[in-house]
Amino acid sequence: MAALRSLGRLVAKKSLKHSSSVGRNQHVRYLSNGLPGLSETHQMLRQTCRDFADKELKPIAGQIDKDCTYPKKQVKMLGELGLLCVDIAEEDGGTGLDYLAYAIAMEEISRGCATAGVITSSLYLGPIKAYATPAQKEKFMKPFLNGDRVGCFALSEPGNGSDAGAASTMAKLDGDEWVFATTDKSKKHKQTLDAGRIGIAAQALGIAQAAFECAIDYAQKRKAFGEPISKMQMIQTKLADMEVQIESSRLLTWKAAMLKDTKKPYTKEAAMAKLAASEAATNVAHQAIQVLGGMGYVRDMPAERHYRDARITEIYEGTSEIQRLVIAGQLLKEYHAS
Ligand SMILES: Cc1cc2nc3c(=O)[nH]c(=O)nc-3n(C[C@H](O)[C@H](O)[C@H](O)COP(=O)(O)OP(=O)(O)OC[C@H]3O[C@@H](n4cnc5c(N)ncnc54)[C@H](O)[C@@H]3O)c2cc1C
Known about the structure:
- Its cofactor is FAD.
- It holds the Pfam family Acyl-CoA_dh_1.
- Belongs to the acyl-CoA dehydrogenase family.
- The protein is an all-alpha fold.
- The chain has two domains: about 1-155, Butyryl-Coa Dehydrogenase, subunit A, domain 1; about 185-335, Butyryl-CoA Dehydrogenase, subunit A, domain 3 (Up-down Bundle).
- About 65% of the residues lie in helices and about 5% in strands.
- The protein has 15 helices and four strands.
- The chain has helices at about 1-15, 20-30, 40-65, 70-80, 100-110, 115-120, 125-130, 135-140, 140-145, 185-220, 235-260, 265-290, 295, 305-315, 320-335, and strands at about 170-175, 175-180, 225, 225-230.
- The longest helix is centred in the middle third of the chain and has 35 residues, at about 185-220.
- The chain is globular and about 75 Å long.
- The protein binds flavin-adenine dinucleotide (FAD).
- Flavin-adenine dinucleotide binds near residues 152, 156, 161, 312 and 315.
């Protein structure tokens, strides 16, 4: 909580004073529809991340996509604000919040810029948090908390992707140093991926929310046949369906995060969240392009980028086919015929 307060103060100082009143009203409208009972800490984090994303990430997202560049300055800012280590304990130098907080931060950052969002992924720090010794944490965790260094999780190989258990890379001692990767081919990957899927679900939610906002804004401004297209029922149907998909996926995502935080099994729920949110993101971004018509297809508007960003969330950290296999596998265990 203390960490979040300082995070809030820092972000407020750096970004809120520059927010326009129109932007602030939009935040209130969107953020009012949170989960009933969402704690003050989580609501504050959500608002803080949203304001930061609007001020620092949204303005650069289109350009870094066009230039194929890495948002180095923004990653450093995320690190300074404690947003690269939201769920890492304070004694380890992290922000000291929970996984729900991480999912909330990931969504809001991804709503501003999906590239920045995926850099906050738990895939690198997650297994270190879970398995590293204090000395390993010092070396492999500390420099990664403030954005000085950025880690990655290299599981895919030319010969394996979906089949994580088929990874052939093994740890080897080379002089005094271990050369990556694993001595346990399945269990730790599985736990890392279960948690990571909640993060990708949250990233997909942020992309979906951004696409939805782009569509509803355009629909109210664009006129056809003498009136805003938002007055047309077929456009309204699209907007309604988008909102239902986003909100239902958000509930699944937050539920999976809450199960993890309360140390309950969450493999099935993480897969359900990832499947629902990534498919929602693709559907919402697809319909957003349709609402924008020709402007949806061109790079002057963000809708086509949201679609490309959404599409990868159905592939990495387990394709939608693999999520369905995970869900079905868990269901068959739960409903094991006697
Ligand atoms: C932008 C990007 C970033 C990435 N980042 C990382 C990263 O940071 N670290 C990392 O380790 N990897 C990363 N990946 C790799 C990613 O995780 C894999 O692409 C993904 O897991 C799918 O593996 P694959 O590409 O080998 O597809 P394949 O496993 O070859 O699958 C091809 C198709 O077959 C389907 N399929 C496979 N097995 C089954 C089955 N049993 N039943 C039904 N259908 C099946 C799949 O769903 C898919 O539709 C990244 C990929 C991309 C594109």
